[in-house]
C-alpha cells in the first residue's frame, strides 16, 4: 500500500444543474465520491480528497462512511483548476495517484494497473468516438506523449485528434515537488492545468508513459444524462457478479440492486425487484415487483408486490402479495396477503390472515406488537399496540385487539349480526314486477 491517492472533488459541477454538489449525486444507492473512496481504500492508506464547492457538506457526508481521510481545501481564488487542486496535497509515499471524484466506475483493479508502470508520469488515454469536451493527447511520430491540450485551448487541427485524456494520472512525488510550482494560468480559462505537467516532463526528457484504458470505465459524470449512463453500467456489473455466483434473475435489466446488497446461497429475483442499501438475502425467492430495504431475509419467499421496510428480520417465512413489513422480526410465519406488520415480533407457526393491521402509532409514539407461537390471526384484525398475544391463540376475524391475550384463548369482539327483514323495500321502495 505504498501509494498515496488524491481524489479531486472541488468542482462546481454546473452542468449537473443542481444545488447538490456533483460528487454527492448517487449511483446504485451511494454518492459518486463514496465509490471512489471505497475503491481507493483497497490499495492505499493515504487518501486525500480535495474540496472547495460546498466543502463542509461533502466532508460531512463522507465522514458518515469513512475515517482517516485527509481533506484538503483548494485555494480556488488564487489557484483554480486541476493543478491548483493538487498543490495542497502532501503525499505520504513516493508516488501519487490522482483520481477524479466524478469517475464512480473506476475500480481498485483499474487503479492497480498504473502501479505496474515505472515512469515519472503515467497518464491514462483512450480513443473517443466523440472527443468533444476532452483534452486531446498530442503525440509525436514515435507515439511519445508530448502534451495534453484542453478542449477550449485546442486548435482546429488538434480538435481532430481522437486520443483523449482519461483524467487519471500517476506522478512520482519528487516530480510533483519540482514541477507543480512551475505551473501558470496562461490559458483561456485562466486556470492552473495539471495536464501542463505532461509538456514539462516531455520537454525535460522525463519518463512519460500512456496507459490505454477503456472509455466506459473512465467516463466522467458531468450531467444527469451521464449519471443515468453510469448507473446502467454499474447495475450491469453488480447483477453479473451475483449471477456468476449462482443467483437466478428473471429479466435482469428490470431489476435494481444497490451497491452494498448481499446475496448468499441460492436466491431467485423475479422481474421488477428492487433491493435497496443495507439488504442481505440468503436462500430467498423474491417475486415480481417487490421492494426490500435495509433488512435481512433467510430461507423465505416474498411477494409478488410485497414491501419490506428497514430493520426487518425475516426467517423461514412466507410473505405474500401486498404485504408490508416494517421494523419487525418474523420467524416461521405465514402472511399471505394484504397486511401491514409494523414494529412487531411474530414467532413460528403463526398465520397472519388477510387484512391484518398492527396499529403501531398513536400520533406521537410507535409501539410494539408481540405475537407468540402457533397463533391464528383471522382476517380483518386490528392489533392495537402495545399488545402481547401469547402462544396458541385464535383471534377471530373482524376483531380489534386492545389488550393482551393469554395462552390458549380465543379473542373475539364482534357485535351480534342484526337482520331487519324487508328493509330494502322500505328504503328504496318496492319495484313493480
Topology record:
Elements: E1 4-8, E2 26-27, E3 30-31, H1 32-40, E4 46-51, H2 55-63, E5 70-73, H3 82-87, E6 95-100, H4 108-115, E7 121-127, E8 136-139, E9 145-149, E10 163-172, H5 173-179, H6 196-203, E11 208-212, H7 224-244, E12 248-249, E13 256-257, E14 262-264, E15 268-269, E16 274-276, E17 280-286, E18 291-293, E19 296-302, E20 307-308, E21 313-315, E22 318-326, E23 329-331, E24 334-342, E25 344-346, E26 351-352, E27 357-359, E28 369-371, E29 376-377, E30 382-384, E31 387-389, E32 394-395, E33 400-401, E34 410-411, H8 423-428
Parallel strand pairs: 1-4, 1-6, 4-5, 7-11, 12-15, 13-16, 14-17, 15-17, 16-18, 17-19, 18-20, 19-21, 19-22, 20-22, 21-23, 22-24, 23-25, 24-26, 25-28, 26-29, 27-30, 28-31, 29-32, 30-33, 32-34
Antiparallel strand pairs: 2-3, 6-10, 7-10, 8-9
Q: What does this entry show, briefly?
A:
This protein is of the alpha/beta class and 433 residues long. The chain contains eight helices and 34 strands. Strand 8 (136-139) and strand 9 form a beta hairpin.
Biggest sheet descriptor: 20 strands, parallel
Structural class: alpha/beta
Strand fraction: 25-35%
In helices, the fraction of residues equals 10-25%
So what's the overall shape? elongated
Q: Would you tell me the overall average pLDDT?
A: 94
Number of helices: 8
What are the low-pLDDT stretches, counting only 5+ consecutive residues below 50?
Answer: none
Termini separation: 94 Å
What is the C-alpha radius of gyration, as a whole number of Å? Answer: 30 Å
Number of strands: 34
Amino acid at each position: 500500500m505504498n501509494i498515496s491517492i488524491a481524489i479531486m472533488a472541488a468542482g462546481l459541477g454546473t452542468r449537473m444543474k443542481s444545488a447538490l454538489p456533483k460528487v454527492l449525486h448517487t449511483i446504485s444507492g451511494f454518492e459518486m465520491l463514496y465509490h471512489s473512496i471505497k475503491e481507493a481504500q483497497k490499495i492505499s492508506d493515504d487518501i486525500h480528497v480535495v474540496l472547495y464547492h460546498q466543502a463542509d457538506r461533502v466532508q460531512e457526508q463522507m465522514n458518515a462512511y469513512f475515517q482517516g481521510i485527509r481533506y484538503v481545501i483548494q485555494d480556488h481564488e488564487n489557484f483554480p483548476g486541476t493543478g491548483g487542486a493538487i498543490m495542497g496535497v502532501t503525499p505520504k509515499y513516493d508516488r501519487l495517484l490522482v483520481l477524479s471524484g466524478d469517475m464512480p466506475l473506476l475500480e481498485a483493479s483499474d487503479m492497480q494497473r498504473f502501479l505496474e508502470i515505472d515512469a515519472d508520469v503515467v497518464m491514462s488515454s483512450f480513443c473517443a468516438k466523440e472527443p468533444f469536451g476532452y483534452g486531446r493527447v498530442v503525440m509525436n511520430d514515435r507515439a511519445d506523449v508530448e502534451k495534453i491540450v484542453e478542449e477550449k485551448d485546442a486548435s482546429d487541427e488538434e480538435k481532430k485528434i481522437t486520443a483523449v485524456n482519461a483524467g487519471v494520472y500517476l506522478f512520482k512525488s519528487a516530480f510533483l515537488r519540482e514541477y507543480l510550482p512551475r505551473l501558470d494560468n496562461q490559458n483561456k480559462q485562466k486556470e492552473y492545468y495539471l495536464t501542463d505537467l505532461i509538456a514539462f516532463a516531455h520537454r525535460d526528457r522525463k519518463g512519460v508513459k500512456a496507459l490505454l484504458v477503456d472509455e466506459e470505465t473512465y467516463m466522467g459524470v458531468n450531467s444527469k444524462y451521464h449519471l443515468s449512463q453510469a448507473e446502467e453500467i454499474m447495475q450491469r456489473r453488480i447483477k453479473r457478479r451475483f449471477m456468476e455466483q449462482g443467483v437466478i434473475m428473471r429479466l435482469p435489466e428490470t431489476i435494481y440492486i444497490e451497491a452494498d446488497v448481499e446475496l448468499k446461497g441460492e436466491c431467485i429475483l423475479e422481474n421488477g425487484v428492487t433491493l435497496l442499501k443495507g439488504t442481505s438475502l440468503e436462500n430467498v425467492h423474491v417475486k415480481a415487483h417487490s421492494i426490500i430495504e435495509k433488512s435481512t431475509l433467510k430461507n423465505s419467499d416474498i411477494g409478488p408486490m410485497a414491501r419490506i421496510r428497514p430493520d426487518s428480520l425475516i426467517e423461514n417465512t412466507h410473505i405474500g402479495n401486498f404485504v408490508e413489513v416494517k421494523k419487525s422480526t418474523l420467524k416461521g410465519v405465514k402472511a399471505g396477503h394484504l397486511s401491514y406488520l409494523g414494529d412487531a415480533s411474530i414467532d413460528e407457526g403463526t398465520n397472519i390472515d388477510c387484512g391484518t393491521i398492527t396499529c403501531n402509532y398513536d400520533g406521537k409514539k410507535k409501539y410494539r406488537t408481540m405475537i407468540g407461537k402457533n397463533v391464528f390471526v383471522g382476517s380483518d384484525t386490528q392489533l392495537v399496540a402495545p399488545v402481547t398475544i401469547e402462544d396458541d391463540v385464535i383471534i377471530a376475524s373482524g376483531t380489534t385487539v386492545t389488550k393482551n391475550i393469554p395462552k390458549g384463548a380465543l379473542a373475539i369482539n364482534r357485535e351480534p349480526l342484526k337482520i331487519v327483514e324487508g328493509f330494502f323495500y322500505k328504503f328504496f321502495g318496492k319495484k313493480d314486477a
